[in-house]
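#structure-requests
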Amino acid sequence: MITIDTIAQVDRYPAEDERVLANQIMRAGGGPAAVAAVALSRLGISTAIVGTIGDDEDGAEVLRIFAREGVDTSGISTGANATAGSVIVASKVNSSRAISTRQPMQQVVLNAAAKKLISEAKWIHVDHVGIKQLAAENISRGMGPKISFDAGYNVAGFDSSLVDLFVPTDKQMELRFPGIELAAAVERDAITGKNITVATQGSAGSTGYSAESGLVQADGFKVDVVSTLGAGDVFHGALLSQVIQGHNLADSLKRANAVAALSCRGLDGQSMIPSTPELNTFLKEKS
């Protein structure tokens, strides 16, 4: 899912027929896997994005953003509809956001470049749109790149053994395992799925389990928050980057938590994602 979003920060939501002054308004790239791709690239991972955009100015802006971030866009296809996007109003008083979304882009068949990129990749990271395309493209665990899944939506009955890195939210884990504590649920998913399972917990941090590490937990970090928009997507990209770079799971969670926290210094989900040197400096200051 690849979007161009218009984001406004207000002190409070307007009442009916009321106009309020925005503190900031900006346009930025969005989409769970798209934001994760930017995080991966900034953290030093060679990254490409596969998805569908429209033949319009928003689509052109998507390509400019990824080019600036060093993300390979040869796997992006152009569809018949307008590029996906949202208008997002973030309220400081409510610490929440209201989102009005354009009809999602209809994904087209992967182009030849996308198929080549996937065949040569070590990992493929998918969001709630991409996970549905894997079977259609004959992509499965153990038959090519390892699979990482941003499992933030509607995964109560998902078979986690289909992916190598399964990362739901704590709320999704509650739906998967009603009445079971989060740590036990994470461990159960990882053992049953024979994978790495990590549950995100917002500002509280994250909890993960792998056969190598056992159960680990990492606290979140305090920063001056402008917006939490996209922080979960940033976490997914950051976590995968640390796994790829060979950090153990405990350190990967800690470092991904820090990257996600630092991204909250910006109104959008991308502009304040740190580089690896910036991340290391931040963690050194916090130690």
